[in-house]
Amino acid sequence: MSEVIILAFDTSTSAITAAVHDGSRILAEAAVIDTRRHTEALAPMVEKSLQECGLRPADLTHIAVGIGPGPFTGLRVGIVTAVTMGYALGVPVHGICSLDALAAQAVGDVDGELLVASDARRKEVYWARYVSADGSAMRTSEPAVNHPLDLPEEVRALPTVGRGPVLYPEHFRNPRPILDVRAGAIADLAALEIGSGRHTDAVPMYLRRPDAQEPGAPKPTLAGGR
Amino acid sequence: MSRDEPLVLGIETSCDETGVGIVRGETLLVDAIASSVDLHARFGGVVPEVASRAHLEAMVPTIQRACDQAGIALRDVDAIAVTSGPGLAGTLMVGVAAAKALALSLGKPLYGVNHLAAHVAVDIVEHGPLPEPVLALLVSGGHSSLLLVPDVTQDVRSLGSTIDDAAGEAFDKVARVLGLPFPGGPHIDRAARDGQIAIDFPRGLTSGRDMERHRFDFSFSGLKTAVSRWVEGQRAAGAEISVPDVAASFQEAVVDVLTRKAILACQDNGVEHLQIGGGVAANSRLRAMAQARCDSAGIALRVPRPGLCTDNGAMVAALGAQLVAKGREPSALDLPADSSMPVTEVTA
């Protein structure tokens, strides 16, 4: 599969991460832990990762991006970068569920059932259940956003990857040392998707509606008004 | 139009309009817009998360439409310009990230530009090179500023700005009090045409002492409250309210202050050219009063057509083309989105 060059990145967790992949292996990978500088850090990281491989953007055949779920503002930076690069370069853009990447990262560490629980802010987690077997992780529940205690106790007791256990150790008591998405894992999953001829659009998994309240009547300004 | 002039694509996402404009030199080729304004109407104001989601969805289709309509291929573009501030942090990031993706993919320079400077520069594609200096009155839902602009590519000075609500914000709030839809500006303008200037609403920061301390600043919060009080008082007394009269009287108060201070700023600084920009520049009464007062003061007035006064990508491309033509330094690829970018910084 040497004709495949995938650029992958993810901005859905606390890491800003980029990788270059040739369809069978990772050629370069970078990550920085920073939840506030997605806009600044992603493009230079992509540029540097390509340079490390002696590649130019025009050499890319595919782009893959983590589509969350994850905090919206950072998530969008990755996705808009991916779809715009895809358009400019005329290459397909594959959207990879970021929780799937976290689960894939745990495959060597966990055998059998596992839980991915990542930071959804507001005392909630993005989560999904997986079964790790034969070198891959299969998702067995739809990604969701909940308060940790909304998850059944037996689910919370599963080996858990992502920052959920770091943030809520009292609720997730079986933490595994995998906290953030690695772009290499996004690229690996994209390579599988490309190899099987499938394609998932890079559409963000928000899982929450925007916070917005319709206004009531204007507040009175006269003294004694109600 | 010469092929030698820089071809620049500009992206604007500082609020609720996804704008992609393409300019060659001083010629506008296309101004493509996708607006999420209808999505915000029921909330009575722009909801940043709703706007950010809409920008992401609209970005590639709007770039594509701009290139198609301009009849250019993306690779022909000489530079990418983008509003890097000021504006809503979350919406700015979508545009800045998209602009970087283009610059990186195409190997072209990136210019992060100031939204307010772009509002000034847009008139170049409408009325030709800017007089230097020009005095700019920028009035929108997010800004109310008086700027002295000796060189829009590198020297923009702030003379004053609103100390509370922006002018457009006051229009939105008063519209709500009057039961008119969001955005308030066009609705108040329309209602006011059938009204009389019957109520003497206050002119903020125009009294003697305020004219010393806030000579070129604006304040519209008190005016909004005065309108609310007047309306409530009438209703409490069981009196019928004439929406056209209230709209006309409120609008007159806003426009009177804006134009009075703009003319004064020209006179104080010896500037012979006034330019008005921003969404409120679409207001018919503002245009008429500014023209009349400029005529009597011997000041030349420039106002771009309404579509170029509201937020758009053409203004960003217009400024970008000036920056390229003057050989200004491009931005680095780690350019941030700066929601509170000072107006004095033309580029980031």
TrEMBL record, chain A:
The gene is tsaB. Residues 35-148 form the Gcp-like domain. InterPro entries: ATPase_NBD (IPR043129), Gcp-like_dom (IPR000905), T6A_TsaB (IPR022496). This is tRNA (Adenosine(37)-N6)-threonylcarbamoyltransferase complex dimerization subunit type 1 TsaB. It comes from the Bacteria. It comes from Nostocoides veronense. Gene3D superfamilies: 3.30.420.40.
TrEMBL record, chain B:
Its EC number is 2.3.1.234. Binds 1 Fe(2+) ion per subunit. Transmembrane segments: none annotated. SUPFAM superfamilies: Actin-like ATPase domain. Fe cation binds at residues 115, 119, 311. It comes from the Bacteria. NCBIfam families: gcp_kae1, T6A_TsaD_YgjD. Required for the formation of a threonylcarbamoyl group on adenosine at position 37 (t(6)A37) in tRNAs that read codons beginning with adenine. Is involved in the transfer of the threonylcarbamoyl moiety of threonylcarbamoyl-AMP (TC-AMP) to the N6 group of A37, together with TsaE and TsaB. TsaD likely plays a direct catalytic role in this reaction. This is tRNA N6-adenosine threonylcarbamoyltransferase. The lineage of its organism: Bacteria, Bacillati, Actinomycetota, Actinomycetes, Micrococcales.
